[in-house]
């Protein structure tokens, strides 16, 4: 008889969903939702990278910005209206944009405050994903969709080099040596 342990009983009856589907679960979680309209949902980012960090997602099952075509221009305009509302409702200065290479499924727009103060902001990759050209501003993405009818992917060499970009404060010319120095420095901007 085989000595291999029978592990069948330890397999959960419901297989856990892949981590990249987490936003789709959060879109249905009343604790995450801050706005819900006919076309879009706004949720709180679970690991905020600034004092204010929301995600705007369509109800329509659009996997990523690379699935967009001209028929989605009105949806994107709705994203813009939601961004305007969020700016009116928040005291912090907000930016809206998309990661050039998203990690999570369901297309989503980040709405994030410029302070970049958060315990969840830990790595140079986190920083460079919001503070280099890896972050595609909302207006640029909408213009590209209007101009050519789709969003072009960035070359992988550009992705690599953007992630290696030396740290640079987003509010002044200071170039910190490392993340702890940057995070200390960001706090000083709050006092000004
Ligand atoms: P992206 O790199 O554009 O795909 O960013 C995904 C964002 O989703 C990140 O800012 C994460 O902090 C955030 N996030 C990850 N998991 C969840 C979740 N389950 N609910 C809400 N936000 C999440
Ligand atoms: Zn600075």
Automatic annotation (TrEMBL):
Pfam families: DcpS_C, zf-C2HE
Any single GO BP term: single strand break repair
UniProt entry tagged with the keyword Hydrolase: no
Superkingdom in the source lineage: Eukaryota
Domain HIT: 20-121
Keywords tagged on the record: DNA damage, DNA repair, DNA-binding, Metal-binding, Nucleus, Zinc
Subcellular location: Nucleus
SUPFAM superfamilies: HIT-like
GO molecular function list: DNA 5'-adenosine monophosphate hydrolase activity; double-stranded RNA binding; metal ion binding; mismatched DNA binding; single-strand break-containing DNA binding; single-stranded DNA binding
Gene Ontology cellular-component annotations: nucleus
Protein name: Aprataxin-like protein
Species whose genome carries this gene: Bombyx mandarina
Gene name per UniProt: LOC114241482
